[in-house]
Amino acid sequence: MINLGASKYKGLLITISFFLVFFILVALFNIYLGKSLNQENERLNKIIEVHSQIAAAEPGTPESFWQVRSNELKTLFDGGDIAGISYTPVNKQIDRSTYTSIQTGLNNLGTSSDFYTDKNRLNGQLSSLENQWASVIESKEKRFQILQYASIVLAILYFLGIVFQMVRNFDNIDSEIEVVKNETENILSTVNEGLFLITPDHEIGAQQSQALKGIFGMKEDIEGNFFDFLNKYVSENSLEIAKDFLGLLFGKRVKEKLIDDLNPLKRVQVNLERRDGSFETHYISFDFKRVLEDKDVQYILGSATDVTQEVLLELELEETRTQSEAQIDLFLSVLHVPPAQLKLFVNDTNVGLNHINAILKDNDNKDYKDKISQIGRVIHKIKGDAALLNLHSFEVKAHEFEEVMAEINQNPSLKGEDLLPLAIQLKNMIGHKDSFLAIFDKFDSSKAELDKAGLKVSAGDSSGDSEAAASPAGSAIQQMVKRIADEYGKHAGVIEYDNTQSGHSPEDLKPIEDSKIQLIRNAVAHGIERPEQRIKSGKSAMGTIYISTTETNEAIELVVKDDGAGIDVQAIKQKAIDLHIITESQASDLDDKQIAGLIFNTNFSTKDDADLNAGRGVGLNLVKEIAKQHNAKIGLVWKPESYTAFKLVFPKENLIEANNNEDDIS
Amino acid sequence: MNEQELQVFIDGTVNYFNKNSKDKAEVGSPYLVKEFKSNRTLFSASIGISGKFQGMVYLFAPKTMLASLLKDIGETEYTNEYAADLAGEAANTIAGNARKYFGKDFMISVPAVHIGDEHEILLNEGLKTYAVPIMWKEHKSILLISI
Amino acid sequence: MKLMIVDDSKIVQNMIQRFLTEKNIEFAGKANNGKEALDIFTIVRPEIVTMDITMPEMDGIEAVKRIVAIDDSVRILVVSALADKATAIEALKNGAHGFLCKPFDERDLNDALYELIEDLVDE
Hints:
The complex is a heterotrimer. Chain A is built from 21 helices and 13 strands. The longest helix of chain A has 76 residues, at 115-190. Chain A starts with 5 loop residues before the first helix and ends in a 9-residue tail after the last helix. Chain A is α+β, with helices and mostly antiparallel strands. Chain A folds into four domains: 6-165; 194-306, Beta-Lactamase (2-Layer Sandwich), CATH 3.30.450.20; 317-452, Four Helix Bundle (Hemerythrin (Met), subunit A) (Up-down Bundle), CATH 1.20.120; 468-657, Heat Shock Protein 90 (2-Layer Sandwich). By secondary structure, chain B is of the alpha+beta class. Chain B has helices spanning 3-20, 63-73, 80-102, and strands at 25-27, 31-33, 42-51, 55-62, 106-108, 112-116, 129-136, 139-146. In chain B, strands 1, 2, 3, 4, 5, 6, 7 and 8 form an eight-stranded antiparallel β-sheet that branches. In chain B, helix 1 (3-20) crosses helix 3 (80-102) and helix 2 crosses helix 3. The longest helix of chain B is centred in the middle third of the chain and has 23 residues, at 80-102. The N and C termini of chain B lie close together (7 Å). Chain C has a five-stranded parallel β-sheet, sandwiched between helices. Chains in contact: A-B, A-C. At the A-C interface, helix 7 of A face helix 4, strand 5 and helix 5 of C.
């Protein structure tokens, strides 16, 4: 850095001071010389005066006259005052011989016999004294002149010397500045970041790094007010925050390093126009630092960096992370479920999702509440199937779907637009299903490879595939029951009896399976009590669910019975009134069986919070729909504190054809 | 794209009809499509989106609908030219609405209009395009959002 | 030096308090809301205050304003979640000196306090 203050100027200052002193000295000297010359001239004048007085004297002049003249001469030579004018003694080196003889002559003239001869002689001496004195003065003047010339020349030389030094100084400074400027320019043109200064009035400084304009896709240097420039790229809100933020930096109070987190310009989206007219999105990050001068904030140094790569990477990473979480989830699920069942699940889900799309697409039906109910049933079924197979991620997604539906449903009057979120949820689910399928296929193909290589990979129970498909493996049901029971803090076990003949296709038995699942969940959620309660009632802590599937000539009967608390008719009656399903007066007219039947109603539930498993009232409603679809009869018996039993009788003839009524637009 | 963002395009379309006519446009329930085929002649206006999101937005309308709208505006000529103009204007309104809402996040191209039975359209792979039916009077149009 | 903690979360209070015992900073009281903070401040007059700006009953900004009005030399560190940048900046405009983002660990707290009072300690 150049030190423009201190030393160089100091030297110059000293030189100039000396010059001034020199000048003053010369001036003083001149004045002194002048005065001295003046004095000599006066002395000469006085001598001439004395001479003329002596020359005019006649004999007989009184002694005092000669005495006074002599004194005057003496004063003129030895110093003193004459008529108010003081004379300094004459320089000792001057020849006094003439003076001495004049004095002698003067003393004798008073008593001289030959007056005129003596007087003439005195005149001559006095004249030569005058001449002597005149030449003294002359030589003094000459010397004086020389001195004057000399001092002028010296002064000029000195002055030239100073000028020369100054020029040299400035030259040095200039080349130093040049070097620094070069270095700075080099830095500014090479650096990747866009560096710039912001003045306290928020103007962008002219000195900027080359990179800056490129970062914003401009050809010219950026100038003007910083916030006006930003306005093109950020929202009003961010701009306000940015103004406040920079305001804090310009002040001195806030600690710079402690407010970095509040920088609103850490990621600014900038759209740069490509050559072909389309736009490329870049992300720019701004950093700000105070530029201090003597503890005052002179500028703020701004640095703009293109962080597009990092941002995109981050977004990608985020997506990958979410994807891989889902994928791990899916993968784990895939591992423990028999492939045939998985295939069935995926197929069913596919059909279901297509069905939902069809429901949405059918714009002739403007009863939107009905659409939601229909969709709700499909989703609930998917959820149930997923739960059975322990496919947690599907369960969660289906649950989310249900939540969104529930929220929309709260709206008393629905418009087509209101169903938009459902289309979005549907898209999500389809996406999830596709990811799942992708993993499944991969897994399947790698399993095939392994099989070929002689390595048997067992995934869940791969034996007895067709049976497994027809009736979910006993262990699967037990697992499901245990899981649901755990969630409710209950204990429940399952006893199953199944005498259906093999030879039924999975599709045919599906309605029975679906109903079974719903009824089981309902049993755990509502039927079986918590262990403490059971013990209080004298039962075993663990509840039991009995499932029997019996095939007769005409029908297949499904019975699901739990040894729980039975049906709480009062609670159901109250809930129905609260939900405005019936009025108080209507309620009093109904008998217990009719009230119990209300649990099959849409949206009915005696549990206050919906949870993953039951409680939204869709489960039993779904059962009712399935029964209706297949012409099955539903029976319900219970004994308070003892048991609840559901019975469904599916006529065999309806089972086989009732499955193919939905549009497939996949 | 989230709900609000999709809604911007739907609102734009609805506003266009409502502004130009006494009859209000109605939105049906949206669903998903992976391709679009039609069995009659339609006018299509397409808008390209780039920036935070990339994709296309299409508006398909039958000529009868456009003709009816022309009549409501006060036009007496119902040529293809005029109808195409109208479709383009509608698309412009939607695009403008979108620009206003999304501001600096989006670059929205100038709409292009096409007439015919076959429309070459670019949709996302699989069931990923939102189809929003928009009904006006007895006519039906479809807004496709593929982003 | 004395430090006062203003935060409605007991967990945060305890954490900062624990931290102080390891350093040469004296714990000078804790407050659950702005009003309490003012009361304690006027009596104890700590040199440093950590202030959560998302508290009920007199928001943090108001508290900052009032404390600064009583004694301008107090060093105030705003502690808050990042979601509310605007409020944090508002607090800084009103006299706070710095910002610490929740959630923070001991090291973050250490660095922040160091920055906050570094020039006082050097004197």
